[in-house]
Write a structure and sequence with these properties.
Elements lengths: L1 E8 L10 E9 L10 E5 L9 E6 L5 E7 L5 E7 L14 E5 L5 E7 L4 E6 L7 E6 L11 E4 L6 E8 L3 E8 L2 E8 L5 E5 L5 E7 L6 E6 L6 E5 L4 E3 L8 E4 L3 E3 L5 E9 L10 E4 L14 H9 L3 E5 L9 H5 L6 H17 L8 E6 L1 H12 L6 E5 L18 H4 L5 H10 L15 E5 L10 H14 L13 H15 L8
Parallel strand pairs: 23-24, 23-25, 25-26, 26-27
Antiparallel strand pairs: 1-2, 2-3, 4-5, 5-6, 6-7, 8-9, 9-10, 10-11, 12-13, 13-14, 14-15, 16-17, 17-18, 18-19, 20-22, 21-22, 22-24
Helix pairs in contact: 3-4
Amino acid sequence: MERRYIQTKHSTNESTITKKDEFHTLFYHPLGSRENQDILIADFRELDDPNLNIVGSVSRDGRFLFVYVYDRDNANTIYYLDLNSINYKIHRRPPLTLLIHDTRAFFVILDYDHETESAIVLTDHSAPNRKLIRIKITTAMLGCAHWETLIAEDPKRALESVLPVAGDKLMVIYIEDVKTFLYVHCYKTGKLLYKIPLGIGTVSQCYGDREDTEAFFSFNSFLEAPTIYRADFSLVAKTSLLQLEQIRHRNEWRGVNVTGLEIPIFIIARKDVKRNGQNPTLLYGYGGFNIPILPSYSSHRNIFVKHFHGIVAIANIRGGGEYGEHWHECGAREHKQNVFDDFISAAEFLIKNKFTSPKKLAIQGGSNGGLLVAACSYQRPELFGAVINQVGVMDMLRFHKFTVGSFWISEYGDPEKSSEFEYIYRYSPLHNIRLPRGVQWPATLLITGDHDDRVVPSHTLKYAAQLYHYLKKPEIKLIQRNPILIEELVDIMSFLQRVLQLKWFEE
């Protein structure tokens, strides 16, 4: 199957990088055929919503084609096609049957069991932290009264993912207190069987099948590079781990924001670190799109800790998915300022508790995190010595006019609506740059991709021009480099070494 847009909206003087794609469609592409011979599967232009997104998948046994239609709020409708009814051959656009329709929730079919003619589905329907249900293909459309709950919503943990494996088992990942935990449940009843013991870190990339007796998953943490585990449900074996001496990580630190809400902060530092207010510190945040920032391995952060004797702090602020949908909603749309307040509170916590000082504190974020650090740098410039802004969303009044930006309206709001324009304008980095009084604007490194088709480069380029206009600093430079990620990381470390006046320690 092939997904593509059939209509593109852009003016003649706009580049192809900024064009807005509309009316997503799904095609069947027979192997060995030409593209113009593709057969249309799904096209919902009659709904007159150019921002719908269409995804197709086939059940494990090959009998059903499921077609997902997502709106900008990530709620979705599901249609299905019984491939057995057309003898498993597609010669023309097939008729699709409605399976689930709910404008307030998302649904993902994880498995279809031909013996019971039912499917298990992950959903947030009436369950912000998600739950697992079982539906019958023939009765699902009749509503939730005809659905069976396998794993109920847990109010204290977010159900991240579920993988059917080994015939009668489910591998279940929960996010709890900004860490992931892996459990095994019964496929038929949903009952918890046992927990797979792992350290503090993040489980991801689970692979397996109900026909197999083993499954694989990746685990990593602040100090462990991604490691592949093999699970046969009686033994968990892993490869050797990368050891980094003289480094520790702690997660019991919690900053308190202006409302008294505790903000979790992971802190990675050497064992011999002294809280004297002089440690170079890199504070990272994201805070958006229900994406949790979980423990993960980063070679350049560990270099910062080991060779610059620095501290890395990761603030799990509102807007992310660390504590479920409520945590996300508290940092979306008209509540976006909460995200900036949480991040600023984390910086104040680090300074107050003598981990660092403003002149030694750098902040880093990318994409939505770039918006975060840009907003914080103008709201509280006196708190930061340096800002690393990677492909940030800077122009909040026009973000929806480029490529996939319209899908972000559910996160940020619609700047073309007067009531939403007001709160968006109040924090838009491009429109709020002002020369600070009595303090120096923090040294700023701006990074963008000249062919980025998600956060288009005009965000960063316009922001750089606006910074120059207000600050009139001749040090602003444009450096063109080949798109090699290791060079970008070297640039970041070199920038921090210069502006924070760091010393390199060979060890």
